[in-house]
């Protein structure tokens, strides 16, 4: 009994951990992407230079960077090192680089 119970419990623990990892993933819908791209192109802002910051999904944006709002979208954007990025305001992490 013990030999079958231990692998089963270990398997459940792994699946639970995987569920938590997937819950952290942020998905931006195509509609939100369109709204953000159109808004950003109409409301240009100056780029902020942040030395040593490599922009990519999950990169943390310093508190010194002012996040701009987009109507009807919970995410914010900023132009950092000449790249427009979409940011989760609660974690201040980049969720998408806007082309």
Question: Would you write up a description of this structure?
Answer:
With 99 residues, the chain is of the alpha+beta class. It contains two helices and four strands. It has a four-stranded antiparallel beta sheet. A hairpin with a 4-residue loop joins strand 3 and strand 4. The longest helix is centred in the first third of the chain and has 22 residues. It starts with a helix and ends with a strand.
Total number of strands? 4
Shape: globular
What are the low-pLDDT stretches, counting only 5+ consecutive residues below 50?
8-23
How big a fraction of the residues is strand? 15-25%
Termini, distance in Å?
56 Å
Q: Mean of residue pLDDT?
A: 79
Helix content: 25-40%
Rg from Cα: 19 Å
Strand order of the largest sheet: 1-2-3-4
Give the count of helical stretches: 2
> Class by helix and strand content?
alpha+beta
What series of H and E elements makes up the topology? HHEEEE
**In this structure, how is the largest beta sheet organized?**
4 strands, antiparallel
List key phrases describing it.
alpha+beta, four-stranded antiparallel beta sheet, globular
How would the blueprint of this fold be written?
Layout: H1 2-23, H2 30-42, E1 68-70, E2 73-80, E3 83-88, E4 93-98
Antiparallel strand pairs: 1-2, 2-3, 3-4
Give a quick summary of the entry.
By secondary structure, this protein is of the alpha+beta class. The chain has 2 helices and 4 strands.
């Amino acid at each position: 009994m013990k030999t079958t119970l231990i692998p089963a419990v270990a398997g459940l623990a792994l699946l639970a951990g995987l569920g938590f990892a997937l819950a952290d993933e942020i998905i931006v819908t195509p509609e939100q992407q369109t709204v953000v791209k159109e808004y950003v192109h109409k409301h240009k802002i100056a780029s902020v230079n942040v030395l040593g910051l490599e922009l990519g999904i999950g990169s943390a944006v310093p508190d010194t960077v002012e996040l701009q709002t987009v109507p009807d979208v919970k995410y914010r954007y900023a132009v950092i090192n000449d790249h427009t990025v979409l940011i989760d305001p609660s974690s201040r992490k980049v969720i998408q680089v806007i082309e």
